[in-house]
Amino acid sequence: MVVKLSLNSQLREEKKSKPSLMRREGYVPAILYGPKTKNIKLKIKSLPLEKTYKKSGESTLIDLQVGEEKTIKVIIKDIQKNIINDKIEHVDFFEVDMNKKIEVEIPLEFIGEAPAVKELGGTFMKNLESIQVKCLPGDLIESIEVDTSSLKTYEDDINVRDLGIPDNFEIITQSTAQVANVLAPRIVEEETDIKEEVAAGGEEEAGTEKTDDQAKDENKKESKNEKKK
User: How far is the CA of 25 from the CAs of 16, 153, 178, in angstroms?
Assistant: First the structure.
């Protein structure tokens, strides 16, 4: 499903364009660029931007209103987040040409329940979170659904070529790349056992070292006793 999103932005004033000042006023500094657009410095209200990004990610077309000028079709090319509170601190917008294909990462949305998990007790393995595609901006979608109900046994898996991606998408990710599968419980247990064995081996070595030290102490005591005799 194609999601229609929009954002309002304002041109940054040179004298009041310090990022720290803008953030205190509730804005996020941004930049707009593209093949036909030189770098344009902008600022955007933080709350609407956060809400839009949660819906769009970096794979959905956005109508960006620049000041009082015309609306521009963009995608979010890059964001920077605060490492403490995870809020957006800066955003890059890329102006797209609606007649030229672009490369984007489309998130994968996993739906359904794998019978190999529900009925056999296996562990679901998600091996890819997104795939890279090339398409026209007007064809961009929010996500690609992955139906996990086809995973009926531990031998079953889902590859990129199984996703049923529309013909208007050129898939860049390798078609044989594994998207998801289910591991048998014994495999998970074996991995756990190996870790436990390694940990136990370390403890045994430590115990051996202690025993050797004790033996040395005992030998010293015996030597002293012999000298006394």
Answer: 11, 55, 46
Domain co-membership, 124 together with 176: yes
Query: Using the 8-state DSSP alphabet, how is residue 229 labeled?
Result: -
Encoded amino acid at 133, one letter: V
CA-CA distance, 44 to 66, in Å (whole number)? 10
| Look-up of token digits 């998990």 | 117
User: How far apart are alpha carbons 131 and 186 in whole angstroms?
Assistant: 30
pTM of the model: 0.71
- Which pLDDT tens digit goes with each residue over 129-161? 999 999 999 999 889 999 999 999 999 999 999
Say which CATH number the domain at 14 has.
2.40.240.10
Does one domain contain both 26 and 77? yes
Give the domain range for residue 87: 5-96
